[in-house]
Amino acid sequence: MAAATDVQVSHFLDEYGVGSFHIKLIIWSTVIAFIDGYDIGAIAFAAPSLIKEWHIAPKDLGVVLSASNFGVLFGSQIFGWIGDRYGRKTALILANLLFGVLTLPLPIRPISPNCHGCASWPVSASVELFPMW
User: pTM, whole model, 2 decimals?
Assistant: First the structure.
């Protein structure tokens, strides 16, 4: 096994500088972070309209509002471990596949007239348990 080599980042940057690849990487990472933040926070802005349109109690949206946080909590642990053990590419592919498979039932879910959309919450919550990070 080859010995690990220490790399001093300041020396590396002084020698090679910051190129267009690094700038594109920073820009794309920032855009993705904004999109992820919007995805997590958008339900909070939609909640008052959902309560009014669906005639439900605010406490009933608790599962929906907290599902994303639990998704980040468990998804990062599970897929972080998979990424460490089997590689980041494998973890991302599995997370995307799981997200897609759990999203498929959403258009065909039954909606009870008494529930005003409640039937979609368990599926939505399960989809949020495996977010993209």
Answer: 0.52
29: closest CA among 103, 100, 133? Answer: 133
Q: Are 119 and 109 in contact (CB under 8 A)?
A: yes
- pLDDT attached to residue 81: 93
Q: Got the DSSP string for 50-97? A: HHHHHT--GGGGHHHHHHHHHHHHHHHHHHHHHHHHH-HHHHHHHHHH
- In a 13 Å sphere around the CA of 80, the CA atoms on its Cβ side amount to 8
**Helix, strand, coil share of the chain (percent; to 5):** 75, 0, 25
Q: What is the pLDDT of residues 86-130, one digit of tens each?
A: 999 999 899 888 888 877 776 666 555 455 445 444 445 444 444
The encoded tokens of residue 36 equal 């992820």
